[in-house]
Design brief:
The chain has one domain: Gcn5-related N-acetyltransferase (GNAT) (Aminopeptidase). 32% of the residues lie in helices and 34% in strands. It contains four helices and seven strands. It has a seven-stranded mixed sheet with strand order 1-2-3-4-5-7-6, sandwiched between helices. The protein is globular and about 40 Å long. The chain starts with a strand and ends with a strand. The mean pLDDT is 96. The chain binds coenzyme A (COA). Coenzyme A (COA) binds next to strand 4, helix 3 and helix 4. Coenzyme A binds next to strand 4, helix 3 and helix 4.
């Protein structure tokens, strides 16, 4: 039952893709997720419990700006601060890399994630109209670290 949060390794990428596709309504293909990992592995962390990968966070960076490209916790493990721990560890890694601004997009319909991010100190910047392939708008969030 011990929860372990650690940086993701090459051998974890299959599980991360699986978790991502199962928990996030996403446009990202497995190949894109693997590519993201290869370029930004230092910002990929996972949560492991009972020898199972139960959550992950995927950070990326560009032009000294950080981005949360994906975060998910398996449904039966939610509400236990695992998401909070994953977000904190990737934020601390950004700080160590001297990256002090983080952005992320979330579907306007994803109320749970919106509340989660707002509780973690993310501020709404703007709405990105028809950001997703099904025409749904995204809310752009920012946090200064
Ligand atoms: C968003 C997500 C990652 C949050 O993960 P989580 O592990 O449930 O996050 P936390 O446990 O840290 O916080 C969730 C809530 O549980 C509450 N909580 C945390 N620890 C708790 C505890 N010990 N007891 C009771 N409640 C607790 C938090 O206060 C928080 O409440 P809030 O929703 O009002 O903010 C998760 O809901 C998820 O995977 N969603 C599907 C994927 C998704 O939408 N991802 C984001 C878009 S990319």
């Amino acid at each position: 039952m011990t929860l372990i949060i650690r940086r993701a390794k090459d051998s974890d990428i299959g599980d991360i893709v699986h978790l991502w596709k199962r928990n996030i309504v996403t446009n990202n293909t497995p190949a894109e997720i693997k590519q993201m990992f290869q370029s930004h592995s230092k910002y990929f962390y996972l949560a492991k419990e009972d020898n199972l990968i139960v959550g992950f966070v995927a950070g990326t960076s560009k032009w000294r700006l950080g981005r949360i490209s994906g975060i998910a916790v398996e449904e039966e493990y939610r509400g236990r601060s695992i998401g909070n721990k994953l977000l904190n560890i990737v934020e601390n890694t950004f700080i160590k890399e001297d990256i002090n601004e983080i952005y992320l997009e979330v579907r306007v319909s994803n109320h749970k994630a919106i509340r989660f991010y707002e509780n973690q100190g993310y501020k709404q910047i703007k709405i990105k109209k028809a950001y997703y392939s099904n025409g749904e708008d995204a809310v752009l969030y920012k946090k200064e670290l």
